[in-house]
Amino acid sequence: MFRKMQFYQRMLLLVVACSGLIAAPQAFATYKQITAGFAHTCALKSNGSVICWGAGKTINTGITTNTGLNYTYEYGQSIAPSGTFTQISAGMLHTCGLKSDGSATCWGYNNLGQTTVPSGTFTQISAGGLRTCGLKSDGSATCWGDNYDNYYGQASNNGQTTAPSGTFTQLSVGSWRTCGLKSDGSATCWGDNSDGTTVPSGTFTQISVGGSHNCGLKSDGSATCWGAGKTNVGSGREFGQSIVPSGTFIQISVGKYHTCGLKSDGSVVCWGDNNHGQSTAPSGTFTQLSAGDAHTCGLKSNGSVTCWGYNGSGQTTVPIDSTNPTSSGKINGISTRAPVGSSATDYMYAGLAIQEDVNVLIRGLGKGLVAQGVAGALDDAMITVRKADGTVVDSNDNWQTHSSSSMLTRRGQAPTDSSDAAMIINLPEGLYTIEVKSAKGGQGVALVEVYEIVD
Question: Domains in the chain, start-ordered, CATH in brackets?
Fold first, then answer.
């Protein structure tokens, strides 16, 4: 028996559903800024708090390599302090934040003083390779941390922390150099010049510095880049990251060997190194971008975050926020209960058409229905989420084994029977099917529930 009924929810969900809603799930936070570092990512929440993911969730003070860096990359750069922030910036192995009172604080690797913030109030902060720069309220720039190009063990003083005099409106710190946008729209760069820090003529509205190249956004919306990447040979530092495509942009963000631009219609285009998919931008409408070492993250118009590219340390796996488990939020919940057979044509199927990234709670109940007086409940309910092409996104036949089990427990959304299935996952835009069956090949009555969880 193939069951496929349709239920429309405005702009977001299309799913098999009717009857029986469970208690309201709590809300997830939305974000107002995203910043991508070397192997970690941080996001500024709408309430001013900060959450980070990827490398640096622990602190390992050991130094095990001749470059002075520990390959575990665990220096606490993802352990965000409490407090209310207005802006954040992720560097290589450290992160900095600007607080609402104008003070700044940094956390993570501090071998060269890059997290030791000088006194004073700031209007912007930018963290780079092994240094940090801050824009003061009077427009002057100050930098701290490594003043040498010693990322690879060199000891040449290139003046990365020696900020020039003048009045600036924006700063951007890269791996080995810093650039500043002046009040008259001109830009200047300082630090290592092996890839060319000589700024082209013209006035700019925004500037961004990466590993081996720099880019600026002009007042007419066009972008220009300089440094490495003027060719695209796919080796060395030449990946085409400075070959800007045509179009009008409202923001530019430079990674190590790739660049991304946010267009006026909210779409994203990236160019340069794409070895890990960091330049393969997803569809959707974005409001802000941040390109890291080999990954990119974007803030979407609904306040959610999505990341793409290298995920060796989990830097693109956006967490489902559970830091406020008692808050209440908007719920779009739907469910259906029906018999499930033992053959593939007798499973229960739910169709999902998602038009924007969304966090969802999915439960597949069998034995848990016994307490509700349902006779003939399905034994060992199993749920499988598939893309439209059949690719499995996630599956579960025992909620206690899913990665979201602790969150399900904290939220009070865990099934009453351990043999029942449940998960909390993020689903990007697209078409999906939820398959409900018995993991043991049996038959009986099952219930599938789907909830959108938003702030």
Answer: 7-27+325-453 (2.60.120.380), 31-309 (2.130.10.30)
